[in-house]
């Protein structure tokens, strides 16, 4: 038996029916037709790994290992707040503000690295290179990273998990959109079948469990099907993802507080992640509101990107108009800027190592 496969325990027949989804059918019809086979479909193997039981992460000091720390945060009281970061500057600002978890958004990564929209343009290499940099800034701070569709078939999903773990990422979410995906808050999305979605989740789980050293990497199952097939199907897909080993469930584009609350209830005891984007499909829940509704993780995917666009636009317009950057600098000199980027850490390291390169700076 391949490493990781031993944690799937059969709860009945392993012959789960394959339900094909037509993207052209009426969403209500699709949800209804698939619901008729719900009980039979869930008689597939159910994952359980006693090593990763949340009860194992309830007590003790927070671990210096980012993935273990994320599991501890998930197992303990309080909502996990992860601001979206897009580059080293935004990551430094989030850490300076005191956040204990960060989110590497696919949209933000595509925008910051490529200057392009979130339309399946960035590659695994783009995501991994960004993650290596971000995770290296504060190795014990958990980073949750977008993994889109896994960038291909099961082998690529597994490769994504391996590369993310090596980069220091604490957890990732993988979705059920087609390979030519788009931002979850745009319209016109298409999703794959239930079977293919579950296959992606299982591939990620098997890869995590076969990684040397018993990784605590967190697998988050995300569905974008609510806007395509309806909420009933979206919740059901997340139940399937949970059975397949997803540690957290992520429903994209949930449109009301009541729907979020009912989703949380339907998926218990799995923790639920909600994504808030100003002007997007999901209401602009505050962290307190999301926690009251039962969400365990809240991410603000574009908080850094949108702020950067506004700030940089204003600075460029001011420079074009006045011929100086004096007003946009707001008194921040180069040294003050580098202080935000960890200047003192570098100076201190050099001094402790016996260097004298930065005695005066």
Quick recap:
The chain is α/β, with parallel strands linked by helices and 361 residues long. Helices cover 45% and strands 12% of the residues. Helix 12 links the parallel strand 9 and strand 10.
Which characteristics define this entry?
globular; eight-stranded parallel barrel; alpha/beta; two-stranded antiparallel sheet; 361 residues
Mind explaining what this structure looks like?
The chain is globular and about 65 Å long. It has 361 residues and is α/β, with parallel strands linked by helices. Strands 3-4-5-6-7-8-9-10 form an eight-stranded parallel barrel, surrounded by nine helices. A two-stranded antiparallel ribbon has the order 1-2. About 9% of the residues have low confidence. Helices cover 45% and strands 12% of the residues.
Distance between the termini: 59 Å
Beta-sheet strand percentage? 5-15%
Shape field: globular
Mean pLDDT across all residues, rounded?
91
Helical content (DSSP H or I, runs of 4+): 40-55%
Order of helices and strands: EHHEHEHEHHEHEHEHHEHEHEHHHH
Topology:
Elements: E1 8-10, H1 27-35, H2 38-41, E2 45-47, H3 66-75, E3 80-85, H4 88-97, E4 102-104, H5 106-114, H6 124-137, E5 143-146, H7 154-167, E6 171-175, H8 194-210, E7 218-223, H9 226-229, H10 231-243, E8 248-251, H11 257-267, E9 272-275, H12 287-292, E10 297-300, H13 303-322, H14 326-329, H15 334-340, H16 343-352
Parallel strand pairs: 3-4, 3-10, 4-5, 5-6, 6-7, 7-8, 8-9, 9-10
Antiparallel strand pairs: 1-2
Helix pairs in contact: 1-10, 6-7, 7-8, 10-11
């Amino acid at each position: 038996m391949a490493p990781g496969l031993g944690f799937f325990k059969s709860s009945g027949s392993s012959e789960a029916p394959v339900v094909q989804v037509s993207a052209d059918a009426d969403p209500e019809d699709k949800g209804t037709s698939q619901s008729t086979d719900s009980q039979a479909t869930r008689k597939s193997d159910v994952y359980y790994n006693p090593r990763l039981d949340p009860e194992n992460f309830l007590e003790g000091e927070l671990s210096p290992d980012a993935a273990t720390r994320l599991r501890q945060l998930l197992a303990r009281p309080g909502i996990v707040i992860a601001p979206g970061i897009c580059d080293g500057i935004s990551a430094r600002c989030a850490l300076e503000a005191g956040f204990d978890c960060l989110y590497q958004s696919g949209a933000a990564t595509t925008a910051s690295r490529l200057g392009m929209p979130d339309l399946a343009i960035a590659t695994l290499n783009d995501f991994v290179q960004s993650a290596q940099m971000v995770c290296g800034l504060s190795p014990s701070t958990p980073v949750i990273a977008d993994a889109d569709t896994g960038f291909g078939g099961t082998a690529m999903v597994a490769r994504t998990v391996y590369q993310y773990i090596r980069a220091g990422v604490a957890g990732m979410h993988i979705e059920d959109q087609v390979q030519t995906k788009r931002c979850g808050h745009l319209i016109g999305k298409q999703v794959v079948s239930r079977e293919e979605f579950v296959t992606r989740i299982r591939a990620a789980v098997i890869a995590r469990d076969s990684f040397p050293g018993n990784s605590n990497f967190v697998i988050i199952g995300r569905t974008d099907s609510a806007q395509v097939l309806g909420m009933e199907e979206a919740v059901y897909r997340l139940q399937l993802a949970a059975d397949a080993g997803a540690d957290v469930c992520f429903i994209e584009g949930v449109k009301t507080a009541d729907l979020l609350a009912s989703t949380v209830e339907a998926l218990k005891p799995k923790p639920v992640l909600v994504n808030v984007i100003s002007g997007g499909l999901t209401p602009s829940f505050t962290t307190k509101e999301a926690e009251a509704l039962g969400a365990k993780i809240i991410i603000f995917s574009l908080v850094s990107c949108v702020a950067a666009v506004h700030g940089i636009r204003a600075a460029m317009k001011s420079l074009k108009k006045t011929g100086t950057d004096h007003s946009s600098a707001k008194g921040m000199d180069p040294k003050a800027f580098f202080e935000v980027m960890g200047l003192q850490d570098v100076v201190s390291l050099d001094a402790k190592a016996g260097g004298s390169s930065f005695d005066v700076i």
